[in-house]
Amino acid sequence: MKAESQFFDMSAVDINQLHQARGWQQKYKLLLRWGKLIQPDCAIRIDEFKLNACEANTWVECTKLLENSDPILTIRFDSESSVVKGLGILILYHCHGKSIEAVRDFDLDGLMTDLQLTSHLSPSRVNGFLSLWTAVKSFCEHH
Question: Which top-level group of life is the source organism from (predicted)?
C-alpha cells in the first residue's frame, strides 16, 4: 500500500509525459506545471527542515511509518522555486510511500540521465534538487 501525499494528488503526475516530451521546453513546462501542484506548506517552513545548500529556500521533512513491520518513507517538501518543486515531484513519485530499502536502492542519477534533465538545468537548480535528494537519502541511511 502506498502512502498518500499529504499535500497533493499523486495521480495528477504521469512520469511518462516527461519521457515522451519533445525537447527541453516541453519538459521544463511540465516540471513547472507539476511544481504548482505543491502548495506552500507552512508547517515545514521552519529552520529544522530547511536545506542550506539551496539558493531558493527549500524545506524537507521525512518520516518513517511502519506498515506490516516494513518501514515506509513519507516525504513532505516545499520550495520557493517552482522548478525545484517540479523536480522534487520526481523524488515523491519514486520514493514517497515506498519502503526505505527501495529508496536506498533508487537510482536518481540514472533517472536524470534517462530524462536528459541535468544538462539543461542551471547549477543552482541542480544543487537545490540534489540537496533535496541528499536529505531524503540521508534520512533513509539512518533509519
Answer: Bacteria
Q: Count CA atoms within 13 Å of residue 101 on its CB side.
A: 4
Which cell numbers in the block locate residue 55?
A: 539558493
Q: 13-37 pLDDT, tens per residue?
A: 999 999 999 999 999 999 999 999 8
- 82 in helix, strand or coil? helix
Q: What pTM, to 2 d.p., does this model score?
A: 0.87
* Dist CA 107 CA 13 (whole Å): 19
Residue 34, Cβ neighbours under 10 Å: how many? Answer: 26
Residue 66 is part of which domain span? 40-141
40: which residues sit within 8 A by CB, 6+ positions away? 78
Residue 30 included in any domain: no
Q: Is residue 120 part of a domain?
A: yes
